[in-house]
Amino acid sequence: IKNKDKEKDKDRDKDKDKDKDKDKDKDKAKAEEEAQDKKKEPDFSLRQPLPTASPLTRLLVLIQRELVLKANSRKLSTHNDVKLLQQYTQQLIQGTIMALTQHVYPLYGEYRTECLNIIGQSFIAKVFLPLLTVLSGTMFVDLFRQMIES
């Protein structure tokens, strides 16, 4: 009878060990799932400052603003301020095309988000695109003015 009791105790111990192993496996599986969930969710605890434009880009914005204001205040298109704005615009377009074709475009397929961030914080988004907006606006203003005069 004692041997049978000992065997039953051993069987119970084995069952307990199996249950403990199952519990450990379940705990490991839960920990792995939680780790995967944490990887999927963005971590907002480490906030990074918003990227700002470079000092050179900020300087270009100021220069461009002054050039546009001075050129718009002149009535004659032959005035030096207008010619200076035209020359600046031409160089800006050439610089933008060069930067995009030689530096950004070759890397765009592999580093898409980085390239978009570069474009968003560079002179392209801060200087070139607003200049195109201003130029298109002034072009339509001139066309509208001519239509009214005629």
Q: Class by helix and strand content?
A: mainly alpha
**What Rg is obtained from the alpha carbons, in whole angstroms?**
34 Å
Taking the sheet with the most strands, its summary is: none
What's the order of the H and E elements? Answer: HHHHH
State the end-to-end CA separation.
120 Å
Helix coverage percent: over 70%
Q: Helix count? A: 5
Domains, number: 2
Strand content: under 5%
How many extended strands? 0
Low-confidence stretches: none
Shape: rod-shaped
Mean pLDDT, all residues: 77
Biased composition (Basic and acidic residues): 1-44
Transmembrane segments: 123-144
Keywords: Membrane, Transmembrane, Transmembrane helix
Region (Disordered): 1-50
Could you describe the 3D structure shown?
- The chain is rod-shaped, with a radius of gyration of 34 Å.
- The model has no long low-confidence stretch (mean pLDDT 77).
- It has 2 domains: 1-43; 55-149.
- It contains 5 helices and no strands.
- The protein is mainly alpha-helical.
- α2 (55-73) packs antiparallel against α3, α2 packs parallel to α5 (123-149) and α3 runs antiparallel to α4.
- It has helices spanning 2-40, 55-73, 80-108, 112-121, 123-149.
Question: Can you give me a brief rundown of this structure?
Answer:
With 150 residues, the protein is mainly α. Helices cover 83% and strands 0% of the residues. Helix 2 (55-73) runs parallel beside helix 5 (123-149), helix 3 (80-108) runs antiparallel to helix 4 and helix 3 (80-108) crosses helix 5.
